[in-house]
Amino acid sequence: MEGEEFVPPPECPVFEPSWEEFQDPLGYIAKIRPIAEKSGICKIRPPQDWQPPFSVELDSFHFTPRIQRLNELEAETRVKLNYLDRIARFWEIQGSSLKIPHIERRILDLFSLSKIVTDEGGFEMVCKERRWARVAQRLGYPPGKNIGSLLRSHYERIVYPFEMFQSGASLPHCKPKHYDGEDVDKEYKPHSIPLRQSVQPSKMSSYGRRANRCQPDPEPTEEDIEKNPELKKLQIYGAGPKMMGLGLVARDKGIRKKEEPEAENGKENHGEDDTDGPCTKMTMRLRRNLNNPQCVDSFVCRMCGRGDDDEKLLLCDGCDDNYHTYCLLPPLADPPKGNWRCPKCVAECKKPSEAFGFEQATREYTLQSFGEMADAFKADYFNMPVHMVPTELVEREFWRLVSSIEEDVTVEYGADIHSKEFGSGFPMNNGKKTLTKEEEEYARCGWNLNVMPVLEQSLLCHINGDISGMKVPWLYVGMVFSAFCWHIEDHWSYSINYLHWGEPKTWYGVPSVAAERLEEVMKKLTPELFEYQPDLLHQLVTIMNPNILMAHGVPVVRTNQCAGEFVITFPRAYHSGFNQGYNFAEAVNFCTADWLPAGRSCIEHYRRLRRYCVFSHEELTCKMAASPEKLDLNLAAATHREMFIIVQEERKLRKGLMERGITEAEREAFELLPDDERQCDKCKTTCFLSALACSNCPESLVCLYHTQDLCNCPTEKLYLRYRYTLDELLAMLHRLKVRSESFDSWANRVKEALEQEEGNKIAIDDLEMLKNEAAEKKFPDNELLRKLNTVLKDIEHCQRTSTELLSNSETSETKMTFAELKSMVETMQNLPCVMNQLKEVQSVLQIVEDFQSQAQELVNDRDWRKDSPPPEKLQTLLEEGAKLPVVVPECNLLQGLKEQGHWLAEVRRTLATEGGERQEVTLDVLRNLMEAGCNVPQSVSVETAMAELQELLTIAERWEEKAQICLEQRQKHPLSTLEAIVNEAQLIPVTLPNILALQGCLTRARAWVTDLEEIQNGEHYPCLDDLEGLVAIGRDLPVFMEELRQLELQVASAHSWRDKASKTFLKKKNICLIVLCPCAKRREQREEAEPMDDPLDDSDTNTLGLSAQDLRDPAAIVMAFKEGEHQEKEALLRLQKVNMCKENGRWDSVCVCSGQPRAPQLRCHLCKDWFHGGCVPFPSLLPSSGPPINPLCWWDWDSRFLCQRCQRSRRPRLETILALLVALQRLPVRLPEGEALQCLTERAITWQGRAKEALEAPELQQALQRLQELKDTLHHEVEKEEDMEKDAEGSSVIVLSDSEGGEGEDGVIDLTEETSPLLPLLKGQVVELSSATRVHLEELQLEGDLLEVSLDQTHTIHRVLQAASVPPREMLHTLIQVRQINVELFFRFKSVNLHKHTEWM
């Protein structure tokens, strides 16, 4: 299986007993045996609360583990290694070291190669028929790579000489080829196994492979073991029999050992190798000369006996014997190179391998030191923490290692540690330690492995001696990969293993029915191992991959035993496994009654294998048979069956002795003899009932199965040694029979008592006596006993129930039913004993039956299926039934009839079928009646009423559903349709909520139509607010109305016009009406110097001082607008007067920010208030569009500043406003904004007419002409000096424009930073105006600035007034200064952004 992935076998059964089942360990195991026995092993998880404390004394616990080389455990791998040992030794004798070749990156399996070539007919046949490709295929190599020729070459060079040597034939050619050339070494891997095998490991070095096989040690005597406690400990731990004294040599007996001079020589060589390593011929000669001066005389040829011709004398590197080259057969022409072995040493290669066993470690561990070593080994091996290594990975790696020839992994296993010497992991009541209350409970628990073997149901409690591992638990301290090999328990007994703590233990099990199949498979696959060790599987030293066994038809199961879990193995169930890591386990054997046949079969098996027994099966059986009264019934019956077979076999064997003429006999107390003194010399069976001895051969003894193998003495010298006579055995068998048959007598009496009929019934006390007898004699649980207990329980129940019945103490809730009463009477009549209360209970039953008859008569007199019975009789019978001590079914029937009558009356009242008008009911009333009708007894009347209710409910729900659909407005219906639905639904005598809601909607729809007609028929167009209200109401109604769509279009058009007007006027989100109306109230508030958060925040009603109702009257709006104009002008004049007083720092706050005065600041042209340059936008001086102007024409500069309080809107041109008015005329809706816009337009047109009239005056015409001439003159002067101005360069540039472009753009005029040369050049009072004209123009300018409309006349009047005044140099200087600051900030911001962009790039 090397190289193949390991496939885990199926899991074994896992059982989790309850606390009740857990109280009887052996009983629970017997319960699960039919299931678990089919798998061979099973796992038991105790209840979670069962956690025994770990009781090992850690300070005094010291142990010496065993050494396990993993690849030597596996059977097939060990065969391969043994083969490599022999072939390596062969080539070592030939003077060459074995080097194993590699093919396809894996080592060549020489054993498999040899076996396959042999199966194919041998080397000559494979070569002749060219089967090497087939050989390569069978070895698992891929085809088509000429591997067959490589295999032939390697076989011919390495294996073929060895095979020829093994068969005794000679090679067809000359001597074998040696592997000392450099070219050969490149493709061969040195084989290190012979070095480890031939060198005895020292205590300081690592453990050699199979070191115990190199130098066999003599068996220790009892004296040696008693003197050396370590040997005594090892004898306990060693594999094999578990009884003390087995396998030892007695003091007076010598050690039988064959003379093995080769072994002695080997021992000497090993000692030398340990000291100085491999020896050459010269060094060996020198050592002999130094150590033994007389050895010169031994330099003689072993063949001819002469010591002459020293140059031709060869020294054997194995045994130091000398041979002439020409004395050898065949003779050697030249001395061989390297090491050389003589023919005697060569013969050693043909010797069979010695028995394999585990080595004992040289170091003693404590639990702590062993755990540290184990954890470090596992962590280093897997390169991860020990608790993180998956169990599946460890399992695959274990089976890979045991199948590997190349990898030698060595682990240590503290196995078979005697708990009596080192202490058990479970608490024990042995007097050595004071136990706590909890520990005492676990010390007495049957699952304690010290207690289980000696439980009353266990057979091992009848064995007096402590059998280590069977009656006394063994302890196991494991590490990763430490394994226990395939084996079955001694005497095929049960075993139980408990894992106290640590990492899991992986188990594999085979059921007993497949035990022989497993043995056959292992013998078939590895016959070399069983040839010299027939009892190999009893030595616990051989493992085989479960996948191999399963492939050959052996059923295998597995499990991972975790800490706190038990694993049970069943009789003759082979099991093996390994440890996942550092853990501590404890195991012991136990035997139950069902084991006895398996135990007898095991003794017969041992007899065939000539294997020692741990105890005598016959002795155990006879000891139990001697005291049958101490056995429980099952054990007594099983012992009787076993004893019967033993007695029959003993009688037959003794009869055979009588027929041979052996008549002498003497009684022998075999149980008093040591086991080694009563073992059969032939089969090693421990004798107990009888044995054959010879008076001439006192030390010889055989069982009666091997009487022919005792000795050759005459028959009269032979005599029988027996423990019991046949009569005594028959008497013991009879007592067992009486004990086992005592149950039959009791069973017959129980059967007779339970089958008593009327007139012969027994007393209750007699049944109690039978029950007590079963308890006293410990009869097992059986069907008769269960039946007897059931009868006694029935008697007790009947007595208790009848007493309660007759005392009439039961309430209505606890009363028994009529069926229970009748069943109790039948039970009392059928009981096998006399029941005193039977007659009284029968009389109660009769009274109940009479009541039932009366009730049936009442029901049958009138057909209550058509109508209900009279309520008076019903009530009388119900009162009588309530007094009965039993619940009678007829009472429920009568009660149901009563409820039926009440229900029908309620239906009649609801539907008014008994006369009078029908009353309207709700849907819930109908549903409740329907639900109640289902719970009353059914009759014709009930069915009729239910049908009528159902019909009415169906119709009502259908109309409700229709109304619900209409109300949901998924599809609106016309008014006429909904009226028809409501009218039809009103005919149903049920109150329908949805119909009522729909009726309310219809009422509101009619009122909506009426309101619409009134609005449309009014004197004026309807207001937008009225239409919006009607639209909102109409949309909420579930009625389809054609007028609603027209209204929605009108409202949408009005909103569209309002939005357009808002976009035209408003600079930000605001109310358009506020901007269009005069701001008289705002002027009043500004006069009070109270700053407001939002200067444009006013409602419609505050705008003109009109209420919402007044806004609907156009005349009122016009009158209020005219009055507002007058008030706005007066308020502004008052505000100007107040603001003009803010001079020379005599005011507290200015600007929209209400801050302190600070430069630069500018005064509003209209309200005369001061504003900061950073708070409000100042004018740009030069126009941003239109033709360029001359800077000296300062009257054309855009220097007129209006604050945001005075310029409230965008001030569109008059043409734009007129377009809005035209669109307004098309709307059939009145808007307050429309009225205000008309008033504003009329005001603007009126002002425009006055302004035109004033500007057409001669004085103003002359002034305008003067300004144009002056402008032209300055333009010509600028053209003359253009060239000079191009050369002038300023240090900085101020862009007096709103555009963001740089110098040189069209429409942009640059002024130098030095404003002082420019401002003095500005000429003042370019034109002259009369005082009247100036006052008139200033008044017009004031009124024009109040208009929220842009007019050309406003700009013209401003130019004329500017030209007629002195240049406002201070104001102009402020504007230029503010502009310069803004430009600097702009370029600074631009340079910062450019720098950031460069960094990003």
* Basic shape: flat
- C-alpha-based Rg, rounded: 63 Å
The N- and C-terminal alpha carbons lie at a distance of 67 Å
For this entry, what is the oligomeric state of its chains? single chain
Largest beta sheet: strand ordering: 1-2-18-15-20-13-12-4-10
- Number of helical regions: 50
Main structural class:
alpha+beta
What's the pLDDT, averaged over the residues?
75
Low-confidence spans: 173-220, 227-297, 352-357, 1083-1102, 1289-1316
Helix fraction, binned, reads 40-55%
Number of strands: 33
Q: In percent, how much strand structure appears in the residues?
A: 5-15%
Largest sheet: 9 strands, mixed
Keywords: Chromatin regulator, Coiled coil, Dioxygenase, Iron, Metal-binding, Nucleus, Oxidoreductase, Repeat, Zinc, Zinc-finger
EC number: 1.14.11.67
Subcellular location: Nucleus
GO molecular function: DNA binding; histone H3K4me/H3K4me2/H3K4me3 demethylase activity; zinc ion binding
